[in-house]
């Protein structure tokens, strides 16, 4: 039986999966009143030593229709939150402020033919939500997920996500539209190197058998480190892509996966 909810805004941990010593995912009960758009983030955390909540931004990795909430997290050894969060167990409580926000949402993009989702590390979390949302496949003819990590082990969360999609009752029939392109930057794998280089020199499009990225057909969502985000933005802006926002949809949207 779940522990009684005592903390304000607390939800109960239902499942935890550890992938590497740096990465894990967990699921929480979902407040009945929480509505969000796939791709948004919320503030979650634990009570701090001073009695005040210690909160951090977290993308919701589950789709908006899911009964529970999934999160995919880094473990920073001396990180104020994740040095403790990595030890949560089923039945524990996690604080969740039910105010979802964010720009990695369909409403911030103009209609297009192809959707590119470009993630590094835990930046795949908002895309894990969007890839399980039928609207993603209704809006676009092709969906391309690129995920760059240091080692093949760090790609595991994304690999399992993609492998499970064909069996998904809501999106399984549309998954033929999805192309998955994992890359590693340090350890050897089938595709190595910085995703910025793959995009800038046209190798990504060539490998996928698609035309090079152009704002006339393509829309892009980016979620990585500040450096990665800046580099991809520069490549896109040079090709005429315009940044979108909730109030003014555009050709691409960007969000930080974390603050350095
Ligand atoms: C909009 C937004 C959404 C976010 N979504 C997620 C998410 O879905 N999953 C997640 O794990 N984190 C996410 N983060 C980062 C998260 O808010 C925290 O920074 C992270 O949980 C670490 O918290 P901490 O208190 O342990 O360490 P902090 O003091 O917050 O961070 C310490 C240092 O660790 C590094 N770091 C922090 N987060 C990451 C990360 N995710 N990947 C690599 N290095 C990191 C940075 O160098 C940072 O300076 C998000 C951040 C933003 C701004």
From TrEMBL:
- The protein depicted here goes by the name ferredoxin--NADP(+) reductase
Q: Which cofactor does it need?
A: FAD
* Family of this protein: Belongs to the ferredoxin--NADP reductase type 1 family.
Statement: the UniProt record of this protein carries the keyword Plastid: no
Q: Could you tell me which species this protein originates from?
A: Lutimaribacter saemankumensis
Query: SUPFAM superfamilies from the entry?
Result: Ferredoxin reductase-like, C-terminal NADP-linked domain (SSF52343), Riboflavin synthase domain-like (SSF63380)
Reaction catalysed by this enzyme: 2 reduced [2Fe-2S]-[ferredoxin] + NADP(+) + H(+) = 2 oxidized [2Fe-2S]-[ferredoxin] + NADPH
Q: What is its EC number?
A: 1.18.1.2
> What PANTHER family does its record include?
FLAVODOXIN_FERREDOXIN--NADP REDUCTASE (PTHR47878:SF1), OXIDOREDUCTASE FAD/NAD(P)-BINDING DOMAIN PROTEIN (PTHR47878)
Q: Does the keyword Flavoprotein apply?
A: yes
Ranges where the FAD-binding FR-type domain occurs: 6-107
Q: Which GO terms describe its molecular function?
A: ferredoxin-NADP+ reductase activity; nucleotide binding
InterPro entries, per database record: Cbr1-like_FAD-bd_dom, FAD-bd_FR_type, Flavoprot_Pyr_Nucl_cyt_Rdtase, FNR_bac, FNR_nucleotide-bd, FNR_type-1, OxRdtase_FAD/NAD-bd, Riboflavin_synthase-like_b-brl
One Pfam family recorded for the sequence: FAD_binding_6
Give the GO biological process terms: cellular response to oxidative stress; heme catabolic process
Keyword field: FAD, Flavoprotein, NADP, Nucleotide-binding, Oxidoreductase
């Amino acid at each position: 039986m779940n522990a009684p909810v005592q903390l304000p805004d607390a939800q109960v941990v239902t499942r935890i999966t550890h992938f590497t010593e740096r990465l894990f995912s967990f699921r929480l009960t979902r407040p009945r009143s929480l509505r969000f758009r796939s791709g948004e983030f919320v503030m979650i955390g634990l009570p701090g030593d001073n009695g005040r909540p210690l909160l951090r931004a977290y993308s919701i990795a589950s789709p908006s229709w899911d009964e529970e909430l999934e999160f995919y997290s880094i473990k920073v050894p001396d990180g104020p939150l994740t040095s403790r969060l990595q030890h949560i167990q089923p039945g524990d409580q996690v604080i969740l402020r039910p105010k979802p926000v964010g720009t990695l949402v369909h409403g911030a993009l103009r209609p297009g033919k192809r959707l590119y989702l470009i993630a590094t590390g835990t930046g795949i979390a908002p895309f894990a939500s969007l890839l399980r949302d039928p609207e993603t496949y209704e809006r676009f003819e092709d969906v391309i997920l690129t995920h760059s990590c240091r080692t093949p082990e760090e790609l595991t969360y994304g690999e399992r996500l993609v492998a499970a999609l064909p069996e998904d009752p809501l999106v399984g029939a549309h998954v033929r539209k999805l192309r998955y392109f994992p890359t590693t930057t340090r350890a050897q794998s089938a595709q190595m190197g910085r995703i910025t280089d793959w995009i800038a020199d046209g190798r990504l499009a060539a490998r996928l058998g698609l035309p090079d990225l152009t704002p006339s057909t393509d829309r892009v969502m980016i979620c990585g480190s500040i450096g990665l985000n800046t580099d991809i933005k520069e490549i896109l802006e040079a090709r005429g892509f315009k940044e979108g926002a909730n109030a003014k949809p555009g050709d691409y949207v960007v969000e930080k996966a974390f603050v350095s």
